[in-house]
Amino acid sequence: MPDTLTITDNRTGRSYELAIKDDTVRAADLRKVRVAAGDVGLMAYDPALVNTAACRSTITFIDGDKGILRYRGYPIEQLAEQSSFLETAWLVIDGELPTASELLAFTAAIHDNRVPPARIAGLFDGLADDPHPMGALIASFGALGTFYPESHNISDPAVRRRQVHRIIAQAPALAAYAARARKGQPLVPPREGLSFAGNFLYMLQATPGQTFTPNPVLERALDILFILHADHEQNCSTFAMRSVGSSNTDPYSSVAAAAAALYGPLHGGANEAVLRMLHGIGSLDKVPAFIKSVEAGDGRLMGFGHRIYKSYDPRARIIKRVADEVFEVTGKNPLLEIALELERIALQDEYFVSRKLYPNVDFYSGLIYEAMGFPTDMFTVLFAIPRTAGWLAQWEEMLRDPETKIVRPRQIYVGADKRDYIPVDGR
Length: 427
Ligand code: CMC
Hints:
The chain is mainly α. It has 17 helices and 6 strands. It is globular, with a radius of gyration of 24 Å.
């Protein structure tokens, strides 16, 4: 059987044969389907790209029906159990697990690049009073690029690799600076001898002049959360990274764009929205009424549903386990009972079952973050820090792909036909 698709255009009676590769036809092949010789040809209409593959990728595999997530072939469960964030970041970017010496060199590169340029600190003084830390982080990613003009030379792999190190290494400091600056607290630069996650906790929570040792259980929990958020194939922010990067702009600008996409409540902002929702519900007895209001179309059950997962998000399963370990240290987050009751009811409720709406990564992560003492509006920042690895891996892959062109979708024009200008006093 040939790997082709035969389609007949009933407007003309003509038939066309399109090649099928990897269960996909090339949308550009549709262009040969024309009524008249001068036509642009048939287009595929896919407003949110729900059924359009925009690239070939070897980074992350998701089977949304079976709830499978793998980075470079490795199951997320094994990485969460046995890997560290930096090892996973290397894996995501490089394609293979690092050897001991590669991991040592990568850890050293991250260590050596982890302090942002001193003048970046002044950026936070120029923002509004009490700025949302995601707004501040987006601004600081863009500002960071101004210190590294070489980053515009995106055709040099060694230059690219230096920026990858800088962005991943400095993201925790930028995030911690953003959080401290809004409270008028002095910035705490990174310290020697701490892990990637440990240093972030240190920069965020330490008091200058006083000793601060991150709790090892919380440090490991944060590292696992970073692993779970390292990449997630072609989501909104990754597409923003690739789309902006396809114009050959520098990676700092592309990361700022990706972070801006992540900020939205339907994407990385959902973990923040979940906590606001749980606080809003307030007590167990209000859960059934809340579920009914969602079914009636009054808002969404935040942290539920996913464009790709039509079963339990495997990351949510891991986070639920990590939550138990965190709560043993911090004490149980009282909102957990509400979240568990929401999940219990939703998983047997016709509205959610028929639409295959299950908890996603954001449903339980906010509960952990809150128990660890992070303010609610830091949650998306905690998503952004590790996702820099995924964004940059996808950017690198895109630049190496010979099929890459500047992203430029088409449109179906449905506006006014040609009409003549009327001077203002004649309208
Ligand atoms: N609560 C209630 N109804 C929902 C929800 C929800 N959370 N999610 C989807 N639906 C309904 C939706 O109303 C629609 O119903 P109907 O067919 O009657 O119109 C149906 O389910 C399909 O929804 P959709 O909006 O077409 O699905 P989508 O694939 O476009 O949206 C989503 C995916 C994640 C944006 C959506 O499920 C959602 O808004 N969830 C809440 C926000 C959230 O938790 N986002 C985090 C996503 S995971 C992490 C990340 O990517 O950043």
